Structure formats: structure tokens, C-alpha cells
């Protein structure tokens, strides 16, 4: 369980708060999406969950962030890593090895697992992310998307109870993006993992996550069911976050009194809506 109470953080040398009076509770087994504009504080929030803030990035820290009852200010990053695994937005800063296999093994070897268990987990994540063919490749030779998959594999191999991913699909094509969301959904539903994902693709968040948090200037300006997010197009407009055209069309048709059904989030939903409006 994650408990964030009256949390504010100001990076050393900065005069604005990156996080400003945040209160959040995330229960074990939730699948949470976080979105918002650049500079809203999303990455800083993820750093606070893995202890990077305040242990690596120092600054003025107010309030409390607790992971399973442990106060992140009081325990080390290493201790927190037993519970939280984070895929960073800047994956190059996360990579410590030069070969894919070593990158995945690196985290595992600090966990005191048996040789067999390490081998099994390596095989498992390579298969899960469909990157077995990259196993012996130099990381520097990989594309941005391939690197993202390796970074995700390295974190999943450690089987953390809480998985935090900061814009993990930015370099991925639509097919691979869906694959990542499917994997996360499976880990959440079948293995009860808590999954927290920062994403710009709000329709992916609305489709896969249960709860969505929209951040702006270090605050949570929306925190509610992901399915209802399409009802808040005005909020996205105010924040300047782009909304897919099918959603906008649905909202407009409703405002015009031409349609009363659910706001579509994909092409199939749009087809149902258009047929209803046209009466066919
Ligand atoms: N390492 C850092 N040092 C100083 N300021 C930072 C650092 N990282 C982020 N910030 C500042 O904190 C604020 C929130 O940034 P960030 O958490 O990266 O937002 P987001 O991930 O939503 O784009 C921004 O004003 C940003 O400039
Ligand atoms: Mg960020």
C-alpha cells in the first residue's frame, strides 16, 4: 500500500514546488494511470515512490510518502527496491550494462536467488517481452523501442510487488504499446501486482487502468475511475492535453442532443455511435 500525505517537494536550487500538497492512497493491486502536461510533476512523483526523491535528488521534502508502512525518508533506496521497481523515463540513465542479458541479470544477482531461479526469470521476461533474439546484443546497438522493452524486462524480472513505469511506451509502435499494456494488465489481474504507469496516451490509460490521476503543477487535478475520464474533456482542454477525435465527436453529438450513449474511445465505439445517430 502506498500512502502519500501532504507531500510537497522542491528540488534543491529550484524555487517552485515540483509536487505541491499531494494526498494519495494507492491500495495493493490497483492499476493506476497518471497523465498530465510536461513539468506537471509526474516523474517526480514516481521518484518519490522509489526513493530517488529524496535520496538521490535532494531538496525540500514536506509531508510523508510511505510504502507498505515504510517512510521513504527513513529507509534506503535499496530497501525500497524490495517492493518498488521503477522503469525510468530516461532509460539510458537506468541502463548499467553493455549487453541485454547482463542488464536483466544485474538486478537479479543482488536478490540472493539461486542460479536456476535466475536463469528461469531471465528466460521468462525475454519471452514475455518477445525480445529473446536481443539477448546477446549490445544495448548501444538497440533502437529506442528495443531499449524500452529491455528496461521493462529488467524491472519485471525482479518481480516487484509495485511496478512503476514512467512513459514506458514513448518510443514504441502501437502494436508494442498494446503488448506492454496487455502484459501489465496480466500482472495486475493474475498476480495482484500494483501497477502505476505514467502515460501521454490517455485512451490507452482509459482502456486498461482502473483509476486515473491527472496532474498539473504538482497537484492531482483529477483522481477517479479511468472509464469516466472521457466525461472530462473540458478538463483536458483547459490543460491543453490532446483528446482523440472520436471522444470529441461523441461529446459534441451529446451536447447537440443527437446522442445519449457512451462516449466512444475507439473506432468500434465510434461505429456504434454513428449508427445510432444515423438510426441504422
Ligand atoms: N532533477 C531535477 N532538478 C531540478 N528540477 C527538476 C528536476 N527534475 C524535474 N524538475 C522540475 O520539477 C518540475 C516537475 O518535473 P517532472 O516531475 O519531470 O514533471 P513531468 O514528469 O510531469 O514532466 C518541473 O518544473 C521540472 O523542471
Ligand atoms: Mg516526466
Overall description:
With 280 residues, the protein is α/β, with parallel strands linked by helices. It has twelve helices and ten strands. The radius of gyration is 20 Å and the shape is globular. The mean pLDDT is 93. The structure holds adenosine-5'-diphosphate (ADP) and magnesium ion. Adenosine-5'-diphosphate (ADP) binds next to α1. The site of magnesium ion has 4 residues, from α1.
Which descriptors apply to this entry?
binds magnesium ion; alpha/beta; binds adenosine-5'-diphosphate; globular; 2 domains; Rossmann fold; 280 residues; 6-stranded mixed sheet; 4-stranded antiparallel sheet
How are the secondary structure elements laid out?
Blueprint: E1 2-11, E2 19-26, E3 31-36, H1 42-50, H2 52-55, E4 59-67, E5 70-71, H3 77-80, E6 84-87, H4 91-94, H5 100-109, H6 115-128, H7 144-157, E7 162-166, H8 174-191, E8 194-198, H9 202-208, E9 211-216, E10 219-225, H10 233-239, H11 245-255, H12 267-278
Parallel strand pairs: 3-8, 3-9, 6-7, 7-8
Antiparallel strand pairs: 1-2, 1-4, 4-5, 9-10
Helix pairs in contact: 5-7, 6-7, 11-12
The chain binds adenosine-5'-diphosphate and magnesium ion.
Amino acid at each position: 500500500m502506498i500512502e502519500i500525505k501532504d507531500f510537497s517537494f522542491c528540488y534543491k536550487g529550484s524555487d517552485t514546488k515540483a509536487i505541491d500538497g499531494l494526498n494519495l492512497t494507492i491500495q495493493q493491486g490497483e492499476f493506476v494511470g497518471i497523465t498530465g502536461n510536461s513539468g506537471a510533476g509526474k516523474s517526480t512523483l514516481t521518484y518519490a515512490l522509489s526513493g530517488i526523491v529524496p535520496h538521490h535528488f535532494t531538496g525540500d521534502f514536506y509531508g510523508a510518502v510511505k510504502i507498505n508502512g515504510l517512510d521513504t525518508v527513513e529507509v534506503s533506496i535499496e530497501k525500497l527496491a524490495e517492493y518498488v521497481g521503477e522503469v525510468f523515463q530516461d532509460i539510458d540513465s537506468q541502463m548499467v550494462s553493455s549487453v541485454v542479458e547482463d542488464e536483466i541479470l544485474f538486478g537479479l544477482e543482488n536478490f540472493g536467488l539461486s542460479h536456476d531461479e535466475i536463469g528461469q526469470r531471465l528466460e521468462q521476461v525475454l519471452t514475455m517481452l518477445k525480445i529473446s533474439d536481443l539477448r546477446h546484443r549490445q544495448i548501444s546497438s538497440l533502437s529506442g523501442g528495443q531499449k524500452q522493452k529491455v528496461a521493462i524486462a529488467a524491472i519485471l524480472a525482479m518481480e516487484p510487488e509495485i511496478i512503476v513505469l514512467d512513459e514506458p511506451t514513448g518510443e514504441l509502435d502501437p502494436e508494442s504499446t498494446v503488448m506492454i499494456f496487455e502484459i501489465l494488465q496480466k500482472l495486475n489481474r493474475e498476480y495482484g501486482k500494483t501497477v502505476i504507469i505514467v502515460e501521454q496516451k490517455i485512451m490507452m490509460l482509459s482502456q486498461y487502468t482502473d483509476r486515473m490521476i491527472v496532474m498539473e503543477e504538482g497537484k492531482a487535478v483529477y483522481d477517479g475511475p479511468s472509464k469516466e475520464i472521457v466525461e472530462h474533456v473540458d478538463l483536458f482542454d483547459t490543460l491543453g492535453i490532446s483528446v482523440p477525435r472520436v471522444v470529441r465527436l461523441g461529446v459534441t453529438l451529446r451536447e447537440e442532443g443527437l446522442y445519449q450513449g457512451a462516449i466512444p474511445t475507439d473506432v468500434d465505439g465510434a461505429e456504434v455511435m454513428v449508427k445510432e445517430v444515423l438510426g441504422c
